[in-house]
Amino acid sequence: MLDRRDLKVIFMGTPEFAGTNLKALIDAGFDVRLVLCQPDKPVGRKHILTAPPVKVMAQENNIEVYQPDTLRNEEALAKLSSYEPDLIVTAAYGKILPSGILDLPKYGCINCHGSLLPARRGASPVQRAILEGDKVTGVTFMKMDVGMDTGDIIDKVEVAIDPDEHTESLMNRLAEASADKLPDIIDRWVAGELNTTKQDESLATACPPIRPEEGEFDWSQDAVDIHNRVRALSAWPGAFVLKEDKKLKVLDSEVADEAAVPDELKDSKPGTVVKAKGENLIVKCGNGFLKVKELQQPGGKRLRAIDCAHNFTVGSPII
Length: 319
Known about the structure:
Elements: E1 8-13, H1 16-27, E2 31-36, E3 41-43, E4 48-50, H2 53-60, E5 64-66, H3 74-81, E6 87-91, H4 99-102, E7 109-113, E8 121-122, H5 125-131, E9 136-143, E10 152-160, H6 167-190, E11 206-207, H7 223-233, E12 239-243, E13 246-255, E14 273-277, E15 280-284, E16 289-296, E17 302-304, H8 305-308
Parallel strand pairs: 1-2, 1-6, 2-5, 6-7, 8-11
Antiparallel strand pairs: 3-4, 7-9, 9-10, 12-13, 13-16, 14-15, 15-16, 16-17
Helix pairs in contact: 1-2, 1-6, 5-7
């Protein structure tokens, strides 16, 4: 078996999910020669130019970082070619690799994708899994081709989704599941011990990037659906309800037990506060009830329900 220190690896990735996988390769002793990630971006209200997690991880380990705006030019191809990579590993890089780069490494390109392919191909597999109420997701290790997550499958690992779990938590657990398995996958792949299987196109689903307007919900919707939107989109853009020009964000929630709601309020109109005491800020939905655990009122700051529930009137609309 080829010694990990003799395998010249180029790694491509951008967010924390990718950083966890990069650390696994470094800790496992692979010779990561170059790291690619998206360019630094302005973050926060002050628009401070911030390096992505993968760049930070690479710099901490004295690995060269390359942040091209595009891979579809001769400059990028020449840059990567100069490293004579044996393998390219990608994890949430955010760009499709052109055929010239895919053909560079002796052992091809392996991608760690945060879904059980062919389900949820695209940019937002974790958010969409929660948004649509999936009970199980996972990571697929795939031999990359020129399509969007269409390559042959090398292996998979399943991860159960907790019914109250938010995207950030699930993303972290998927990253850990991927990182735990990735070094062994590479060893066995390079040794020729793994076969691939083609994806079943009839089962393929797409998950395009999240749009800001997807955060909006209506209290007439099912409590479970609203809860899924809250936990899927709490980091960005946030789940919100609009009334005229006012926006109320719900940042954390759970589906409330109907037994916690007074009988005389169970048939209230959707959007009505049916309990407002202590940590219990409960709102009637089209079907069921939502316990709002953290919210942001129009023009206000983030507040936990326990700190503001007393400001709401039972029997009145929440906004």
